Amino acid sequence: MINPAIETSIFQKAIEVVEALPLEDRAILVDIIAQRLREERRDLLLKTVAEAERDYAEGNVRRGSILDLMSELDN
Fold first, then answer.
1. Are 26 and 18 in contact (CB under 8 A)?
2. H/E/C letters for each residue in 11-41?
3. Which distant-in-sequence residues (6+ apart) come within 8 Å of 47 by Cβ?
4. 3-state class of 43 per DSSP?
5. Cα 75 from chain centroid (whole Å)
6. Which residues, in sequence order, are CB contacts of 2 under 8 Å at separation 6+?
7. What is the pLDDT of residues 12-49, one digit of tens each?
8. How far apart are CA 64 and CA 61, in angstroms?
9. pTM of the complete model
10. Do 30 and 37 touch, CB atoms closer than 8 A?
11. 19 vs 11: CA distance, rounded Å
12. Cα 57 to chain center, whole Å?
């Protein structure tokens, strides 16, 4: 894990580098980063769905109502 002070310093340097770019380049960079974040979130969602489907196929899930869950938690 990165030391928070170092992480803040790296983050601050990144901001300074970005702020030194021309306005149009910053806008392009924002678009690129936003696209990559969407792709990462999509990939994470696909991974989570695949895990859930695998758990379901293996019978590692339970079904029931909220009352069933509460009852099980009480036991």
1. yes
2. HHHHHHHHHCCCHHHHHHHHHHHHHHHHHHH
3. none
4. helix
5. 34
6. 10
7. 999 999 999 999 999 999 999 999 999 999 999 999 99
8. 10
9. 0.65
10. no
11. 12
12. 25
